[in-house]
Design brief:
This protein is globular. The protein is built from 6 helices and 14 strands. The protein has a 7-stranded mixed beta sheet with strand order 7-6-10-9-8-11-12, covered by helices on one side. Strands 1, 2, 3, 4 and 5 form a 5-stranded mixed beta sheet that branches. A two-stranded antiparallel sheet has the order 13-14. The longest helix is centred in the N-terminal third of the chain and has 19 residues. The chain is an alpha+beta fold.
């Protein structure tokens, strides 16, 4: 009888331990771990988006659980569910996310004025690098948010943009889309080397030249009117604070 009671107590204690663990989330194939509040925000945005597209919905599915210190990390995939039950995975592995914890590769590129810029002159201080190209609508959409972040951290962090476009192509876009970063162009070889296949990408690098985070476009939020709008980039600020 004592053994049964002990086993029952142990089971209850174990179950309570699981329930009391802090939960974090990570999208399959990506590197950034988010808390419950950020995950709930993503779910809220998808709920509002799905209402406007009843025939094509995007859902999140937990595909793995792992322990990290005393916390539980849940890995999820974004899945597109269409009429007829057809399901397509939207989350996949992209080589660039594997750079977290590694040194950013050395490079030499030209800026908009044709001046040569070597990575040695940049990667010795905290730096934010944004990758974009001239036909990318999400890239242009987030530029005002990135400008505001630079305004807040300009004395503490370097802000650089890299595109595979030429100076002329990039310059024409920047005339209508002010982007207050230091712009480097013709970076296709670097883009291919680090494995970027979807845009935009923002890479956070510490003062030792080590990649600390790789992020996608600024996250959307639901405003007070129930509309899905672009957020203020608070997720980027969180990562910047970690390298200061």
């Amino acid at each position: 009888m004592k053994k049964i009671v002990f086993l029952l107590f142990s089971f209850v204690a174990f179950s309570f331990g699981l329930m009391s663990q802090t939960k974090y989330y990570k999208e399959f194939g990506k590197s950034r771990i988010i808390d419950q509040a950020e995950y709930d925000q993503i779910v809220d945005v998808l709920i509002h988006k799905n209402r406007s597209k009843p025939n094509v919905n995007v859902h999140l599915m937990i595909v793995n659980e792992s322990m990290r210190n005393d916390s539980l990390v849940l890995t999820y995939k974004r899945q597109l569910v269409m009429n007829g039950g057809i399901t397509i995975d939207l989350s996949g592995k992209e080589q660039v996310y594997g750079m977290v914890g590694k040194k950013f590769p050395k490079f030499t590129l030209k800026d908009l004025d044709g001046n040569s810029c070597c990575s040695d002159s940049l990667l010795n201080a905290p730096i934010v690098i944004n990758f974009w190209f001239n036909g990318c609508r999400p890239c242009k959409r987030e530029m005002p948010v990135l400008n505001q972040i630079k305004k807040e951290y300009k004395d503490k962090v370097r802000f650089v943009s890299i595109t595979f476009n030429t100076a002329g192509e990039a310059g024409r876009v920047l005339e209508d889309n002010p982007f207050d970063f230091y712009h480097l162009v013709e970076g296709k070889a670097l883009v291919d080397q680090i494995g970027i296949t979807a845009y935009p990408k923002t890479i956070i690098i510490d003062r030792n030249g080590v990649v600390r985070q790789v992020m996608d476009c600024v996250e959307s939020v639901v405003n007070e009117n129930g509309d899905v709008v672009l957020g203020k980039g608070d997720e980027i600020r969180k990562e910047i604070e970690k390298i200061l």
